């Protein structure tokens, strides 16, 4: 177990969100951990004992998409979160994120308001599934390196999907699946991240919205922490 950084990171996150006096969230907000059957029952039981709600899902076949990195083998399964329609909003957090302050307020961020899907005919393709009438998808840009300003600029177009807030939708999930079935529709180097960048491109019909910069920082530095950022996307193990 000590060699499984993502498992240990998830256990640390369970403590941070559910038990920490300085970083914990409201007790009414459940901590969901998405697992495939590849995660042993022993590990799932340990996470459940830590307070997590285990959501066991089937792997999502990535089809033509292959990143070439073994650790990203199952990242497309992340899209199954959009099937959890019993929740009105979900904040997804990668297991390699360190949380240092409460994140409850992210659910009330203006960027998480429901948006009407735009009707531009140019963005409706015959080989893609139908779009939902409304959607909500909010996140931060990828900063691509440690040499970034804080607060960051807001004119970046490429999103990072290590931390995002969304409203689950079966129509949206089916739309994502339709993209997986079209070879070459997006660059597979970063599989689910590039799929979401295509689906929620700024000039598309479901553009992503920008969360307040302090909720999460990718490529974090001490400057970000001193500036008041609340969570940091970096492998700290």
TrEMBL record:
A GO MF term? transferase activity
SUPFAM superfamilies assigned to the protein according to its UniProt record, in alphabetical order: Nucleotide-diphospho-sugar transferases
InterPro entries with a match to the protein in the record: GNT1/Glycosyltrans_8 (IPR050587), Nucleotide-diphossugar_trans (IPR029044)
Coiled-coil spans are none
Q: Which domain of life is it from?
A: Eukaryota
Which Gene3D superfamilies is this protein grouped with?
Spore Coat Polysaccharide Biosynthesis Protein SpsA, Chain A
Presence of keyword Transferase: yes
Q: Does Transferase count among this protein's keywords?
A: yes
Keywords on record: Transferase
Annotated protein name in UniProt: Glycosyltransferase family 8 protein
Q: What organism is this sequence from?
A: Dothistroma septosporum (strain NZE10 / CBS 128990)
């Amino acid at each position: 177990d000590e060699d499984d950084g993502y498992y240990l990171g998830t256990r640390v996150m369970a403590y941070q969100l559910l038990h920490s006096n300085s970083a914990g969230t409201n007790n009414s907000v459940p901590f969901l951990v998405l697992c495939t059957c590849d995660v042993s029952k022993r590990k799932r039981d340990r996470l459940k004992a830590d307070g997590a709600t285990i959501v066991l899902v089937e792997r999502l076949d990535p089809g033509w998409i292959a990143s070439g990195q073994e650790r990203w083998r199952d990242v497309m399964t992340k899209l199954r979160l959009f099937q959890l329609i019993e929740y009105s909003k979900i904040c997804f957090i990668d297991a390699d994120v360190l949380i240092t302050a409460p994140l409850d307020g992210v659910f009330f961020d203006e960027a998480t308001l429901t948006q009407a899907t735009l009707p531009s005919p140019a963005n409706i393709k015959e080989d893609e599934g139908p779009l939902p009438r409304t959607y909500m998808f909010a996140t931060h840009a990828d900063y691509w390196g440690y040499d970034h300003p804080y607060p960051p600029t807001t004119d970046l177009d490429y999103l990072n999907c290590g931390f995002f807030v969304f409203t689950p939708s079966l129509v949206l999930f089916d739309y994502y699946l339709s993209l997986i079935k079209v070879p070459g529709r997006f660059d597979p180097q970063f599989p689910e991240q590039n799929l979401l960048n295509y689906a929620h491109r700024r000039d598309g019909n479901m553009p992503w919205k920008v969360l307040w910069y302090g909720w999460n920082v990718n490529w974090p530095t001490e400057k970000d922490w001193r500036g008041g950022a609340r969570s940091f996307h970096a492998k700290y193990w």
